[in-house]
Design a protein that fits this description.
CATH architecture of one domain: Alpha-Beta Horseshoe
Pfam families: LRR_14 (PF23598)
Protein name: Disease resistance R13L4/SHOC-2-like LRR domain-containing protein
CATH topology of one domain: Leucine-rich repeat, LRR (right-handed beta-alpha superhelix)
InterPro entries: LRR_dom_sf, LRR_R13L4/SHOC2-like
Shape: elongated
Distance between the termini: 56 Å
Number of strands: 26
Structural class: alpha/beta
Keywords: Repeat
CATH class of one domain: Alpha Beta
Organism: Lithocarpus litseifolius
Largest sheet: 14 strands, mixed
Number of helices: 11
Length: 447
């Protein structure tokens, strides 16, 4: 039974008497439910998601549930419930078949009680614990025995120290530490976990250096190092992370140099940088970047910028793309599309902007970008907000163009005109039909 998003404040009490009900979703609702009679219920989803608060304690809010959970002996998946009620938390220990548990609003003083409960859940595969807010400490040190079948662990809240039992999770494949703000390098504690494939740190470490060494993380495929504000150095020893496919870094305002050792990650396919320093961004550009050689082997490199744009540009996605073809309608923007659809064997830079006007212009021209599986690369496409100023300056320094401008102003060369901004322009149907090319300063350079 699915009440997801239902615009109602209550449901019939008779729902609580559906003895054979196995699935109940209360997502995105405000429904208080008496569920003690649903003895065969296996799946209970009770939460609300706020998609406008990513990486916030308010991103997923629990739906309050009355006591009586201990009677749901068949329950296998339970998410998300509030831990404010100690009695309700203690009832979770009776759910011997539980495989997935997500719990929210955990206060520090209730952490020990939760550890006692979780230790009883021997079938648990996924555990997600959220503190009341980003500053609340998660007190999870008291768990003595590791969960033998746990494969996913997500902790949202401050950690004074990484719980010792985490290093004993031999079955875990994914861990996430959000707002943990650990002073000691957490990677050194978990690098020996034999089956670990995903690590996500968001404000999870307050130190200045991360060093991946000792042949650790032999199965890791995704590493996210997000919002590490004090990190100024990242070192990856040769031979570590041999299977890493995705690496996400930033914002790291103190990280001024390209992380050492990325050039040795031969399996890396996706490299994302979030709100990084301009000097680091420039160092990785194909034409003149001093560190470009370190990422030359990576098919997809992206720089994400939000808030204040990098280099006075609008929010954008800047990256190196693996094989890009352009589909377009005949007679529409052929010059643009032909230039873009040329392929070369070397890396190039592409830029997609969130500017609504440009996106609409591309749609009107019938241009569609299609990513393929081959190893070819698209031609360069960058946006230059100051391009017109640069052209104007260059024209003034060119004696031949100065003479042409004088003739144009006398009305002798109709193919050209001098616009109000003082720039000499060549007048064609393409230029008049697609003014955004000049307005937004797109530069398309064939390889």
């Amino acid at each position: 039974m699915d009440f997801e998003g239902a615009p109602i404040d209550s449901i019939p009490k008779e729902v609580g008497n559906l003895f054979h009900l196995r699935y109940l979703s209360l997502r995105d609702t405000k429904i208080p439910v008496e569920i003690s009679g649903l003895h065969k219920l296996r799946y209970l989803a009770a939460y609300t998601e706020n998609y406008h608060t990513e990486f916030s304690s308010d991103f997923r809010q629990a739906v309050k549930i009355h006591n009586g959970i201990q009677f749901l002996q068949s329950l296998e998946k339970l998410f998300n419930i509030e831990a404010k009620n100690i009695a309700l938390t203690e009832e979770l220990g009776s759910l011997g078949q539980l495989r997935k548990l997500e719990i929210s609003k955990l206060k520090r003083e209730n952490g020990m009680a939760l550890c006692t409960v979780v230790e009883k859940l021997s079938h648990l595969r996924s555990l997600d614990i959220n503190a009341t807010n980003e500053e609340e400490v998660l007190e999870l040190q008291s768990m003595s025995s590791p969960l033998p079948l746990l494969n996913t662990l997500l902790l949202f809240g401050r950690l004074e120290k990484l719980p010792e039992w985490i290093a004993k999770l031999k079955s875990v494949v994914g861990v996430g530490f959000h707002w943990s703000r650990l002073m000691d390098d957490p990677l050194k504690v978990i690098q020996a976990l034999p089956n670990l494939m995903e690590i996500r740190l968001y404000d999870g470490y307050k130190g200045e250096q991360l060093h991946i060494e000792g042949g650790g993380f032999q199965k890791l495929k995704l590493l996210g190092l997000r919002n590490l504000r004090r990190l100024n150095r990242l070192i990856i020893d040769k031979g570590d992370l041999p299977l890493l496919v995705k690496l996400r870094i930033g914002p790291c305002p103190q990280l001024k140099e390209m992380p050492s050792g990325i050039q040795n990650l031969k399996s890396l396919k996706f490299l994302d940088f979030y709100e990084m320093l301009t000097e680091l961004v420039l160092s990785l550009q194909p034409d003149e970047g001093l560190d470009f050689w370190k990422v030359k082997h990576v098919p997809f490199v992206v720089f994400w910028q939000c808030g204040i744009p990098w280099n006075a540009r609008p929010p954008f996605l800047l990256g190196h793309y693996n094989d890009c073809s352009i589909n377009y309608h005949l007679g529409k923007a052929n010059m643009v599309a032909d230039a873009l659809s040329r392929k070369s064997s070397s890396f190039s830079t592409a830029l997609l902007t969130s500017q609504k006007e440009i996106i609409e212009d591309l749609e009107r021209m019938g241009i569609e970008i299609v990513m393929g599986d081959s190893q070819a690369f698209m031609a360069s496409l960058t946006i230059q907000p100051t391009l017109v100023e640069k052209i104007k300056s260059s024209q003034v320094d060119d004696a031949q163009l100065v003479k042409i401008m004088e003739e144009v102003q006398k009305g002798k060369i109709p193919e050209f005109n001098v616009s109000n901004d003082g720039v000499l322009r060549y007048c064609t149907d393409v230029a008049s039909a697609f003014p955004w090319v000049v307005t937004y300063g797109f530069v398309m350079t064939p390889p």
